[in-house]
């Protein structure tokens, strides 16, 4: 039992170490994107890789020692067990059908959860690092802006005949520094690729070792359970229970099931303990690397905050000037509003007076309107009476009509007299015409035909 527990602890440690290296490989895979790599991070990565290799060698040595101890314990156990018991144990293994052992599946699930948690932690760390690099980029941009702003005042001196003599020697040095940094970056990328390949290779080997150990532990565990069942059944052979062999066998199976359950719980707790230890080591390394990074970034953050504070102070001054302008506008507007209010009050009083006068005028208009309606009614009555009286009196009182009538009567008499004279003249003309016609006929009668 002790050798089996040590083997399980070794297997959990090997898996945890493999996952830690695998997690490092995943982080390297995520960090393949071209970025600015600091020398401190490179040295920290080298130290961590060396520590991982040393821990792996120590784990291999411990595994060999534990395997030797387990083999020795098995040999001692086999020496203590008689040959007859071995035959019975073999027969019992052949006759019994053991239940599937799900301990490896639970361990795999827990390992997947641990791997997911470690990847999330690495992602958060990379997000924090990206934020720091972004702040550093902003700080450098501010520095470039200040340098360009200062350069504007020196452009006149730079354009002078002797202004470019000092800048010419600096160009080759900058180019050499640029090439040197490019070479360093290329070496770091190659080293990163080599470390990634080594991590993947070690991870594959550890997975194979883990599978072999899991299969061996499962086999030994089944043998151990079968041996315990046989020993218990032999011990209970002398004192059978009331139900016989079947009841005893069922009781033993229940006890073994409870033992399996407790063993699974204990293995899960051990695995959790190993995971917590690994996470503790991981957090300690992260804290050390973050402290190393923050030592250089604190000054950058301070300078950046100082620049931001200066810009904010300039903005505050601009806002104060705008505030003073707005306050002057507000005072002017307040004065205008007070004048408008006074004028409005005066206009309201004047409107009230005008409304009172309007009400008086409207009352007078109503009275005049009543009088007008009454006078119109009287006028209409008088008009009707006048028409009726005019119809009754005829031409009385109408001098123009009477004068016209007299003129028309005189003209009628003159026209009648003229008509009578014309009629008399017409009659004379008719008689003369008749006499002339008679004479013509008589003359025609005397003429020869």
From TrEMBL:
Basic and acidic residues compositional bias, start-end: 45-60, 77-88
Cellular component GO terms held in the UniProt record: axoneme; ciliary basal body
Keyword Coiled coil (UniProt): yes
Pfam short name (any one): CCDC113_CCDC96_CC
Amino acid composition bias (Acidic residues), ranges on this chain: 61-76
Region span, Disordered: 1-88
PANTHER family noted in UniProt: COILED-COIL DOMAIN-CONTAINING PROTEIN 113-RELATED, COILED-COIL DOMAIN-CONTAINING PROTEIN 96
Name used for this protein in its record: CCDC113/CCDC96 coiled-coil domain-containing protein
